[in-house]
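User: Last request for today: this protein with dioxothiomolybdenum(VI) ion, please.
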Amino acid sequence: MTKTMKNIDSFGHLRGESLFVDDIITKQNTYIGLAFDSPCAHGKIVNIDYTKAEKVEGVAKIFTYKDIVGVNQIGGIIPDEPLWAEDEVHFAGQPIAFIVAKNEIIAKKARALIHIEFKNLPVITTAKEAKSKGSFINEPRSFVLGDTNNSFANCEYVFEGETFTNGQEHLYLETQGCYAYPMENGNIKIISSTQGPTQVQKAAAKVLDLPMHKIEVDVTRLGGGFGGKEDQATAWAIMAAVAVQHLKKPVKYILNRHDDLRMTGKRHPYQSSFKIGLDKDLKIKAFEAEFLQNSGAAADLSPAIAERTLFHATNCYFVPNVKTTVYSCKTNLPPNTAFRGFGGPQGMFVIESAIAKAANVLGINKRLIQKANLISENDTFSYGQVATKTEAINSWNSAETNFDLVHIENEVNDFNKKNDRYKKGMAVMPIAFGISFTNTPMNHARALVHIYQDGSVGISTAAVEMGQSVNTKMLQIASETLGIDPEKVKIETTNTTRVANTSPSAASSTADLNGKAVLKACQSLDKRLVTVAAKMYHVNEYKISFRSNFVFIDDEKTKHLWQDVVAQAMLERVALSENAHYATPKIHFDKTKEKGHPFAYHVYGTSITTVTLDCLQGTYEIDAVKIVHDFGKSMNMGVDVGQVEGALVQGIGWMTMEEIAYDETGKLLSDALSTYKIPDIFSVPKTVEIIALETKGDEMAVYRSKAVGEPPLMYGIGTYFAIQNAIQCFNNKSNLTFHSPYTPEKVLMDLYKKEA
Ligand code: MTE
Ligand code: HPA
Ligand code: MOS
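Assistant: Here's the final one, the structure of the complex with dioxothiomolybdenum(VI) ion:
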């Protein structure tokens, strides 16, 4: 396999030739759409007056819930989200109407002329307040293993504390958008920047009251999704589709950055509390946590994200007695949604904080507790899955020796002895992340492979390319399996008429699910062509193979090309297309018992982070992050290392500088890149070193190349604790805060904190 293949989009991206939704050449008379959203976070709509706006020259129509033919409902897991608000609004930024006009300037002008009056209702912005008022999305869920109560009584040490992790803006380079146009017979085609084409199709069918087959959704690629387009690309696509249904004209809607920031949900902020019990050997005997998820005003994916928080609440540690509970708290913020890690990072931060708290009070190094509790073979996770092929201890040990942890620590200590104003800190962050959609029925995909008679190949799957290079991996699998050059293979757009009933591209599982389907389809086709070639040469089938476009007999290259066999197959009327289905075997989960085997496998790894802190200013630099990561047998190291680096930096941003702020009225304050800071080249670690852990991989991963999209984000959590470690070297208090992001302001507070 060409394991060094570059992302097949790199050439097009570099030259600016790749097509995103806004680059598609539009049809004549394409209208532009623009949502009118609520300025009020919670209120009754007393009056709306569209008359002035409607009169603006060039406005085709202003759509509201009254124009919906089907149901005004886009909720995926729970039907609690209208497309357009009716008589009440539940968050600032909630769409109320959709202006369709000749161009954007006209649409904006009309939007400014809509007059709306509200009767304000009480606004809840925090999860804690929601809980105190009994405002929830659904019932809380708990995972229980063993008996925490009894166990705490026998623990040598018990510590309690509270944590907070803020939300995170996806900041995909390509904002949300879609382009919808009428086809014949009332059919509608939607080009959408979505991770979930079927989700868009299904929800559009309901809102437009059409059968799904009348709606075709097509995705070329996304300029990033990061989870933000798993569920939240749907609304805009349907708005445009409703307009198409009425106007029978093409409608495009690309959100500008401000509108996107204001109207879309983000990573869920969590307010959590923990109780941890250890024995005298630092073994964690019991762990309890209560997670308050700030879900926003509607369910969106919150229940699934809450569930994953519970799955990852003990990270890569074995804890025999666990009780974790998560509340999805309903607030008046835009519905929060999937973001790389899907609630896992929020869960892991809490146990890492609990361990840090224990270490801070005991006056020992956090890593002693971490290391003493790494999960090993045949230990059980709190949800009943038995850990097999665990790499937690392996990856820890490998990081410790390869990066010489003791040496790093000595350097930090030496520096700290010599310096007063500046202090260095370090932290180790081991991770374990479960691969599969936690909702078992979602773990399937299909591939449709056509071999054309000239020997070129077209592949359709459910995979959406969003920068993670899944198309490159699909192409590698096809060219390897068919024995042909990558140039012969084209990856088609993701389209609901070619691959139906897809799960979104998410859960880091896209390459596994779709790759296994491509593999199956190509293997079937290969077999057919082998039969044809064997007949051509009058030899047994087992002697035939295809390599680098040529037919081989035994190990001898023949003069015949692969495409000659394809041409012969065509003459013999052999089917040159194949559709394959893959559904992850072995996984199951019983939600009534909260036990099962939900994950195909886990991804492990360990990072070591060092930082330098300016104890006068509270500012810091990340010196280095050194990672041993479990890629399994990576099928494309360039791509996979890119995923680790990108995820790491995204995790660091979440932990250190990305600060979402809403005021008490529910208005987003961090509504521009001047007030929402993401990592730039100056704030990334000065050194990033990544070593692949030598493992056999897992047969559940395609080509044993483990999923890589989300897990490395959680290495970023190490940054928080490295900073805290530096603070301790300056101000050794046991009551430091677990409140991310650790912005310089908060770092300063901890630097000069007094004992409680
Ligand atoms: N990488 C890039 N460049 N852009 C993205 O939008 N999304 C991440 C991750 N890596 C993303 C990315 C998220 S949230 C997921 S779930 C996975 O990619 C999805 O792709 P995969 O299943 O192919 O790993
Ligand atoms: N991960 C990511 N996205 C999802 C999941 C999951 O486990 N379940 C539903 N959507
Ligand atoms: Mo990723 S959060 O599963 O799209």
